[in-house]
Amino acid sequence: MGVEVSVEGLTKSFGSQNIWRDVSLTLPSGEVSALLGPSGTGKSVFLKTLIGLLHPEQGSVVIDGTDITKCSAKELYEIRKLFGVLFQDGALFGSMSLYDNIAFPLREHTKKKEAEIRNIVMEKIDLVGLAGAEDKLPGEISGGMRKRAGLARALVLDPQIILCDEPDSGLDPVRTAYISQLLIDINAQIDATILIVTHNINIARTIPDNIGMLFRKELVMFGPREQLLTSEQPVVKQFLSGDRFGPIGMSEEKDESVAAAEAAMQAAGISGGGTKDDFTEIIAQVQPNPGMPERKAVARHRERVHEILHTLPPNAQEAIRRSMAEEDRLRAENRAHAETHVAANVGEWSTVGQGGVALADSRTADSKTDVIDFGGNDAPTQQWATPADVTQEISGDTPGHEGRTT
Question: In this predicted model, what pLDDT tens digit does every residue of 202-257 receive, in sequence order?
């Protein structure tokens, strides 16, 4: 299970330039959170502060009972092993192949043999859709592919805390949807604590359990996603809709004359160019793929939402109840789908050969939904394997394995 990250009174500056001040929030253990805000508000700086790459002037960051702003270098080194980090630009070693980049944390922090490392690395490479590209250098692939390679590296240690700095940047909408679904599935599998920094409003509306927003050097709010998505705060509504009319300007501090001119245009019926989506409706949260475990975070999150529900406006309360009902329906459908597949696939493994070895028949398993839990010491790294993957590993014909010996 992921660990709780507690931030209290955090202030960070570069010289005389204050980035943000007095930021306090708690990333609940095992839940997915998102941090929003205009460009230049210090979201990436916040992530780097959480892992001790930057040191704040004031405040504390407590991770698994240790305040990393006051701990020793040795303690910080051990705390960092809890993290998997996807940096904004991928942060890959330019002179290493993708394979060696992804294998680096395993070689640095574990005593696994190269055969074990190969299995784990190739599994993560397949997971992010880079099979066949593992021997390429970062300079030989696109920015989106480097981003996916960075995500694979962030996952190889099965971290308890995953930080993602704009995981959708450089990716097309389809790959963004796949990466978003992957993060939800990972959370369902290992109950990791995840923080996503993003400008993608669709991700913010459908993926996290909790949302926060930075603006004008302060944390505007942080809490259950339902609270922010139904907020009436002008800065929140403007950011979600992408409208140019509102507190956010081209620079963080909008000039008064510009604000007055925009107010006049708005009064005249001129559009600010934002989306016309109805933000009074809360889109149901994305669910794990059928065959995945149900997310343990759901019950914890629901409990907190129910605690604050009575404090919200009536229309927000109704929108939240509708969203919860829709999520319950989707989870029930996923359970039914998984049970159907389990029943349908019983026959595939029912033929027993000599020596009591179960043999699959000629039917093909659905690799999108059928998950095999291998158990044992390597269970966390094998949990996304499918019958088709197993067949490839046994036959030794897995693409991209050429030249790598066990």
Answer: 899 999 999 999 999 999 999 999 889 888 898 998 888 888 888 888 766 676 77
The reported pTM is: 0.78
Tokens representing residue 45 in the block: 């700086």
Separation CA 149–CA 98 (nearest Å): 7
User: Which of 138, 131, 50 is closest to 94 using CA atoms?
Assistant: 138
**Residue 369: per-residue pLDDT:** 34
Q: In what order do the strands lie in the sheet with 218-224?
A: 83-86, 161-165, 193-197, 32-36, 210-215, 218-224
DSSP helix/strand/coil, 196: strand
Closest by Cα among 154, 129, 127, 136 to 96: 136
Q: Which long-range contacts (CB under 8 A, 24 or more apart) does 42-49 make?
A: 42/12, 42/214, 42/217, 43/165, 43/197, 43/214, 44/88, 44/165, 44/197, 45/12, 45/19, 45/20, 46/10, 46/12, 46/20, 46/197, 46/214, 47/85, 47/163, 47/165, 47/195, 47/197, 49/10, 49/12
pLDDT in tens, 52-101: 999 999 999 999 999 999 999 999 999 999 999 998 878 899 999 999 99
Rounded mean pLDDT, 143-159: 90
Quote the tokens at residue 147. Answer: 């981003």
Nearest to 327 by CA among 225, 190, 395: 225
Contacts of 252 (CB under 8 A, 6+ apart): 38, 40, 41, 215, 216
Residue 359 clears pLDDT 90, i.e. is over it: no
Confidence band of 190 (pLDDT split at 50, 70, 90): confident
Closest CA to 164 of 33, 14, 306, 318: 33
Q: Which DSSP symbol is given to 394? A: H
Count of other CB atoms within 10 angstroms of residue 181? 16
Please work out, in degrees rounded to the nearest 5, the angle formed at the alpha carbon of residue 211 by the alpha carbons of 315 and 147.
Answer: 135
Partnered with residue 221 across adjacent β-strands are 213
Is residue 278 very low, low, confident or very high in pLDDT (cuts 50, 70, 90)? low
Query: What secondary structure letter does DSSP report for 45?
Result: H
- How many CB atoms within 10 Å of residue 158? 16
Contact between 305 and 226 under an 8 Å Cβ cutoff? The reply is yes
What are 193's strand-pairing partners?
Answer: 161
